[in-house]
Amino acid sequence: MDFNEHTATRAVQDSFRGTSDPRLRELLDALTRHLHAFVGEVRPSIREWEHAIGFLTAVGQTCTDTRQEFVLLSDVLGVSMLVETLNEQEGGTESTVLGPFHMVESPPRALGDSIDLIGEAPPCLVAGRVLSSDGTPLSDAEVDVWQCNEKGFYDVQQPGVQPAGNGRGLFHTDSEGRFRFRTVLPSHYPIPTDGPVGRFLRATGRHPYRPAHIHFIVRADGHTPLTTHVFVAGSPYLDSDAVFAVKQSLIVDFTESTGAGTAARNGVRTPFHHAEFDLVLSRELG
Ligand code: BEZ
Ligand code: FE
C-alpha cells in the first residue's frame, strides 16, 4: 500500500508491531496517533518543519551537565506539571516540579542552622513538621531544601558571587518530626531566558517569571518521596507562574515580626520573617 495521508498513521503503527515491551508499544502507538493528527491538522510547510527541527536541535545543543533546556521546555509547556499532577499521591502534601536548580547536593546541616551563608539580607525563620498522612510525626526524615536569594539568584547562577551551597541544606527531623532553619526571604525570579526556551517565550509574548518559593524534597522510610515547593503568600506571579507550578495549598504566609524574644531564641536580628507549615508524606503501598 502506498504511504499517503490516509495510510501513514497505520503504516507507522504497524512498524512497531514487533515491540516486545507492551507499555513501549502502547506509548509508540499513541505517540504516532497524536503526532500524525497534529501534523494533519496544522499541515506545516517544509520550511516550518525545518524550523521546528531547528528549534528542537537548539534545545538539545543548549543542554550541558548543569543546564537542562529540555526540562525547561517541558516546564513552560505545562507538561512537567501535568506529569506531576497525574502522579500525585493521595493524602500527602501536593507536589510540584523539581526544576533545574537541584543540580548539586545540598550540604548536610544541623536543625536551626542558617542556609544563608552571606548574612546581609533580613533573616527568615522556617519551621514545621514532617508527618505521615495519618498525622504521625516522622522522625529522622530527610528534608532537602534549596532556594534562590533575596535578589532571585541561585548559588549555581552566581559562582564567585555566592558561595557554593548558599541557599541549600540537608536536614533531618528530630524525634517529634520537626525541622527548622534560618534563611532569607526568596525573591520571585525569571527562569533562564538566554536559550531557545527564552526565545520561545518572547515569540509568544509570555513573561518568564516564577513567584517566590522554597524547594523541598522530603524522604522518610516507608513513604513515597515528596518533591514540592512552598510559595510566599503575596509574591508577584502567583497567578501566572511561567511553569504552572502553583497550587493554592502550597501558598504560605511568611509573616514579618519584630518579636525580640523569638529573634533572640533563634539567633536572628529584628525584623525577621517567619513561616511554619507541615509537609505530609503518603505511605508507600505494598
Ligand atoms: C525552579 O523553581 O527552580 C524552576 C522550575 C522550573 C523551571 C525553572 C526553574
Ligand atoms: Fe526555584
Task: Please provide a written account of the structure.
It contains 7 helices and 11 strands. It has helices spanning 8-15, 22-42, 46-62, 69-76, 79-86, 196-203, 260-266; strands spanning 123-132, 142-146, 168-172, 178-184, 189-190, 209-210, 213-219, 226-232, 251-252, 255-257, 272-281. The strands form 3 sheets. Strands 3-2-7-8-9 form a 5-stranded mixed β-sheet, with no helix packed on it. Strands 4-1-11-10 form a 4-stranded mixed β-sheet, with no helix packed on it. A hairpin with a 6-residue loop joins strand 7 (213-219) and strand 8 (226-232). Helix 1 runs antiparallel to helix 2 (22-42). The longest helix has 21 residues, at 22-42. It is globular. The mean pLDDT is 95. Residues 72, 75, 97, 99-101, 191, 210, 243 line the site of benzoic acid.
User: Strand order of the main beta sheet, please?
Assistant: 3-2-7-8-9
According to CATH, the fold-level topology of the largest domain is Protocatechuate 3,4-Dioxygenase, subunit A
Terminal residue distance: 50 Å
Which cofactors or ions or other ligands sit in this model?
benzoic acid, fe (iii) ion
Largest sheet: 5 strands, mixed
According to DSSP, the number of beta strands is: 11
| Shape label | globular
How large is the radius of gyration? 23 Å
What's the architecture of the largest domain, going by CATH? Answer: Sandwich
Assigned CATH superfamily of the largest domain: Aromatic compound dioxygenase
Q: Structural class, from helix and strand content?
A: alpha+beta
